[in-house]
Design goal:
Layout: E1 2-3, E2 16-21, H1 24-32, E3 41-44, E4 52-55, H2 57-60, H3 70-76, E5 81-83, H4 87-102, E6 107-112, E7 115-119, H5 124-127, H6 130-145, E8 149-154, H7 157-167, E9 172-174, H8 180-184, H9 197-205, H10 211-216, H11 219-226, H12 230-237, E10 253-264, H13 267-287, E11 290-300, E12 306-317, H14 320-334, E13 341-349, E14 352-353, H15 365-384, H16 397-402
Parallel strand pairs: 1-9, 3-5, 8-9
Antiparallel strand pairs: 2-7, 2-8, 3-4, 6-7, 10-13, 11-12, 11-13, 11-14
Helix pairs in contact: 4-6, 9-11, 13-14
Keywords: Cytoplasm, DNA damage, DNA repair, DNA replication, DNA-binding, DNA-directed DNA polymerase, Magnesium, Metal-binding, Mutator protein, Nucleotidyltransferase, Transferase
Enzyme class: transferase
Region (Disordered): 389-433
């Protein structure tokens, strides 16, 4: 167990833990077949267009990472062992992991198939300090399931997650409150959730590459680089963030997804589908009085390989036009790697209440026209039903010939705010790290 400083140096308890299963999918396969131990193992599709869903640590030492094309992984490791994914098997094991956590800690927030946040302050009387609880959890998972895990601890969610990443593989790192700023200072700004590639480029242009440097720049410069989340990011950077399990407004999400019995092979059909889904999600936002600043596209291939990509912008919106623009852009970047698609999902995250949220003024006549059109469509849909009208661009040629422009392909069912559609592995935040 590693500890950043003396836990006794502050009375504030680092009671938020982030537990992350190490290379989860690959670790399960190695556990189930011990002959794979020590070999470069990946989980994913073995075909020419397959993608790595998870990589064992021996594979990572060769430069192989999640979401990498399988052809590239083979070039890096000619002796690569490729195992087809067993999604339902992983889900069952994930459920067992969460049961083990629940035996010790009451306040648990599972955020993906292989990771969860835990507030252990209420468990201290029975099980001891946070580091003792973390050791107990990791030991039980190892003994009962034969799987490695890593844990980070802090006074906030964000720092606990960063700490667990620094503890990998199979480690523990507790960051006391008084040492948070010191722990974060040398780390790259990219470890902060909310600083994407564009913000990172903007910060790099002004010489800001570490969190310590970020703390020194004027707030106005930070706001220009990262947008409205500047105060939140600054609070994390200076160690004053105290976001726990009960503060999740920015992580609420809503969305829709659909699985086909037969694979989609026409890129134009996939594009029509995600365009329609983006419209549906935008309507959900407006109906729930939410705005968003992040849209997520989820694509799943027939072999179970899942790609999840997101786009974040500065100004919150509920505009279908904006969501369509962003999600189509994500699809265009991935279409060459997903020649056959079994599942498509579109989700809006980082939701905020529309009331009281500053939204950038829409100055162009085109934008104002879209707002008026969407408002009219919302009223018509409310009065005449979900399938009463739709956008012509969401129709296939056959649809247009058989149905006419006023009878669109039915919308998929939508999930509720705060209950996002299930996600597959993601390079930064999903199974197989």
């Amino acid at each position: 167990m590693d500890e950043c400083g003396d836990a006794g140096s502050t009375q504030e308890i680092p009671g938020i833990l982030h537990l992350d299963m190490d290379a989860f999918f690959a670790s399960v396969e190695v556990r189930d077949d011990p002959r794979l131990r020590g070999l470069p193992v990946v989980v994913g599709g073995a075909g020419a267009r397959g993608v790595v869903a998870a990589a064992s640590y021996p594979a990572r030492t060769r430069g192989i990472r999640s979401a990498m094309p399988m052809a590239s992984a083979r070039r890096l490791a000619p002796d690569l062992v490729i195992v087809p994914p067993r999604i339902e098997h992983y889900r069952r094991i994930s459920a067992r992991v969460m049961e083990l956590l629940g035996d010790v800690v009451a306040d648990i927030e599972q955020i993906s198939v292989d990771e969860a946040f835990l507030d252990v302050r209420g468990a201290r009387r029975l099980f001891g300090a946070p580091e003792q609880i973390a050791d107990l959890l990791r030991r039980r998972i190892r003994e009962e399931l034969g799987l490695p895990s890593s844990v980070g601890g802090s006074v906030s969610r964000a720092v606990a997650k960063i700490a667990s990443a620094r503890a990998k593989p199979d480690g523990l790192l507790i960051v006391p409150a008084a040492r948070t700023a010191e722990f974060l200072a040398p780390l790259p700004v990219s470890v902060i959730s909310g600083i994407g590639p564009k913000a990172q480029e903007a910060l790099d242009r002004i010489g800001v590459r570490t969190i310590g440097q970020l703390r020194e720049i004027p707030r106005s410069a930070l706001a220009r680089a990262v947008g409205p989340r500047a105060p939140e990011i600054l609070a994390l950077a200076d160690g004053s963030d105290r976001t726990g399990l009960g503060h999740r407004t920015r992580d609420k999400s809503l969305g829709t997804e659909r699985t086909w019995d037969e694979d989609l092979t026409d890129p134009a059909e996939v594009r029509r589908c995600i365009t329609q889904m983006a419209d549906d999600v935008a309507r959900q936002l407006r109906r729930g009085d939410f705005v968003t600043r992040t849209v997520v596209l989820k694509l799943r291939a027939p072999d179970g390989t899942t790609i999840t990509r997101s786009s974040t912008w500065d100004q919150p919106t509920s505009s279908g036009e904006r969501l369509r623009e962003q999600v189509v852009s994500l699809w265009e970047r991935e279409r060459s790697r997903m020649r056959r698609v079994r599942l498509v999902g579109v989700r809006a995250s980082h939701l905020e209440p529309a009331a009281g949220t500053p939204v950038q003024s829409e100055l162009t006549a085109r934008a104002a026209g879209w707002q008026d059109l969407e408002a009219a469509m919302d009223r018509a849909l409310e009065r005449f039903g979900t399938h009463s009208l739709g956008r012509g661009s969401t129709l296939s040629a056959a649809d247009g010939a058989q149905r006419g422009p006023a009878d669109p392909v039915p919308d998929p069912a939508a999930s509720s705010p705060g209950h996002p559609a299930e996600d597959g592995p993601h390079p930064r935040e999903r199974g197989g790290r």
